[in-house]
Amino acid sequence: MLVELLVGAITGSLGLVADAFHMLFDSTSLGIALYAAYMVKWAPDSKHTYGFGRYETLSGFTNGILLLCVALYILIESVGRLYDPPEIATENLLGVSVGGFLINLVGVLFFHDVGHSHGHACPSQ
User: Are the C-beta atoms of 11 and 93 separated by less than 8 Å?
Assistant: First the structure.
């Protein structure tokens, strides 16, 4: 992720920068969700009489806002590049891109059995 961001910034590759931010926010959202799942178990107190059950919702909202910010950056940068295309240094792009792809592939293979049930029972097929 950091290598992609660094090489993308040096070479001017929006694709590498976008993928680096994508992986950064995937990691960040997992951390936020994990902490929110921990906080939900906290007992209500005098300040939070409703408990901490809404923290999961707030963590999802926070992740969505972060992703929208990155998407907006990529959109603005892309439109700017349509009118004024930058020179892209391509010496290191292929190696870093393949490395990023392999890391993503390892993640897919590692998590392929993880469902998106969100704690709900899945209907049998």
Answer: yes
Amino acid occupying residue 2: L
Question: pLDDT of 50-62, one tens digit each?
Answer: 777 788 888 889 8
Distance CA 101, CA 71 (A): 20
CA dist 107 and 3 (Å) reads 17
Whole-prediction pTM: 0.68
100-104-109-110 Cα dihedral, nearest 10 degrees = 100
**Residue 25 near residue 5 (C-beta atoms within 8 A):** no
Residue 71, classed as helix, strand or coil, is helix
pLDDT score of 20: 87
